[in-house]
Write a structure and sequence with these properties.
This protein has 436 residues and is an alpha+beta fold. The chain is built from seven helices and 19 strands. The strands form three sheets. Strands 1, 3, 4, 6, 11, 12, 13 and 15 form an eight-stranded antiparallel beta sheet that branches. A seven-stranded antiparallel beta sheet has the order 2-5-14-7-8-9-10, with no helix packed on it.
Length: 436
């Protein structure tokens, strides 16, 4: 057996020390990485534990996506939810040019629907139900996975129409892909618009749909239309990072069809403007919502719909103001029971401002109208405040001289439709512009 001399032993000892230091450094880095990963996992676990705890109590809580910012503490969450309900993002709608149709044919805010049930007259092949969300007065329709859901509408939309609804996406990401969410319209022809025939494949005589697949850093989206069961138009799957900002807050979806042309906005962003997207023959008469499947529970997916409104016709504000003397619109929207203008109203307001700028001698009276929900006195005050809010927006934001506008409120005293129906109420909640 060989033995080490003093010199050899010294060299061997140096080599061993260098090797040991290298191992310690690598081990330290490995430990540091593990600690970092563990810290991140611990933070994630705390978020998920809080969410699961809330869901188990039967409450759906709006929260910002983890990618945007950390979930606020429980004591601050209610305040943040209420802030998200306010139109803080109206500047983001500066390029928004959506204007709704002039005649409401369908409206549903689920206010009179029973919680835990499918809305009256709707059809579904899943367990989608009406729910109440924490911190909100409004009721929402929560989609269940593996379901197609039809409204109770029976009216034809005609060649020109608009469809709107509020959308809330609350996806949880725990390592699996979230299911895709789709919304679209179909023409049922001679069939009932809510027929079981369309539940598995909602095509009809013609149809179109937009599909959204939530991702941790945005969304994948596609658009397709069909003439019966033959694909008419296809826009391939495209990644859009803007969708990341939709998670955990209410966004507004707007659809506008003008014969073949189809335009879709979400949260003020125009996602599609396709001149030849739709077949001409046939008339759409059904709005549908679909949700795919995943390993998650429905509470972990979180897809909610509310404030649906469909209106037909092409609004002709210029002609009506200049030649007929008045123009009425349901497209200027406010917070419920308040006079705060929602940002999705900017398209109509800009159109009115454009007419005023082009007609320097034009003066308008702005008249607010409400439905009959609440007391007559409260509705009168609310209509006056809403008219004043419109005037303030036109003067302060869009540069119209104050002496060209006057305000009046008529409350619930001048209905144009039956207040007994959701559609009638939506038609009565309007702003009227009268040439002076």
């Amino acid at each position: 057996m060989k033995t080490f001399t003093g010199k050899r032993f010294g060299i061997w000892l140096q080599i061993m020390l260098i090797a040991l230091l290298s191992l310690q450094e690598a081990s330290a880095q490995s430990i540091l990485q593990k600690v970092t990963n563990r810290t991140e996992q611990s933070a994630t676990d705390k978020i998920l534990q809080k969410t699961d705890k809330t869901v188990s109590k039967g409450m759906d809580v709006i929260f910002e996506s983890h990618a945007q910012k950390q979930v606020p503490e429980e004591s601050n969450r209610q305040e943040n939810v209420q802030e998200n309900m306010k139109p803080q993002q109206i500047q983001a709608f500066s390029k928004y040019d959506f204007v709704p149709g002039d005649t409401v044919v369908y409206s549903n805010d689920f206010a009179t629907e029973s919680l835990g049930e499918l809305p009256t007259g709707w059809n579904s092949n899943g367990n989608s139900v009406v729910v109440k969300l924490d911190g909100q007065e409004a009721q929402w329709f929560r989609l269940s996975q593996k379901s197609t859901n039809f409204t109770d509408n029976k009216a034809q939309f005609g060649p020109h129409f608009t469809a709107e609804f509020d959308l809330l996406l609350q996806p949880e990401f725990k390592g699996w892909a979230q299911p895709s969410f789709s919304f679209g319209l179909l023409a049922s022809g001679h069939e009932d618009p809510a027929s079981n025939k369309f539940l598995n494949d909602p095509k009809g005589n013609k149809s179109f749909y937009m599909e959204i697949s939530p991702l941790t850093n945005g969304i994948n989206a596609l658009l397709e239309s069909y003439q019966k069961y033959t694909r008419y138009f296809h826009s391939p799957v495209a990644f859009n990072p803007v969708g990341k900002g939709w998670f955990g807050r209410i966004v507004h979806v707007a659809i506008q069809a003008q014969k073949e042309r189809l335009r879709i906005w979400i949260d003020g962003e125009k996602l599609y403007d396709i001149p030849k997207a739709l077949p001409i023959e046939g008339s759409y008469n059904q709005l549908f919502f679909q949700l795919g499947s995943s390993p998650y529970e429905d509470e972990q997916v979180g897809v909610f719909i509310s404030n649906i409104k469909i209106a037909k016709g092409l609004p002709d504000s210029r002609n009506k103001l200049l030649n007929e003397g008045s123009f009425s619109t349901t497209g200027i929207l406010f917070d419920s029971g308040a006079a705060v203008i929602k940002p999705e109203s900017i398209g109509v307001l800009k159109e009115i401002a454009t007419i005023l700028n082009q007609q320097s001698d034009l003066k308008l009276q702005i008249v607010g109208h409400t439905d009959d929900v609440g007391s007559e006195t409260a509705n009168q005050q609310l209509s006056e405040q809403r008219a004043l809010s419109v005037k303030s927006f036109l003067t302060q934001k869009l540069g119209i001289a104050t002496d060209r506008l006057t305000c009046q409120g008529k409350g619930e005293s001048a209905p144009v439709a039956d207040n007994k129906t959701s559609r009638g109420k939506a038609q009565n909640r309007r702003i009227e512009f009268i040439r002076m």
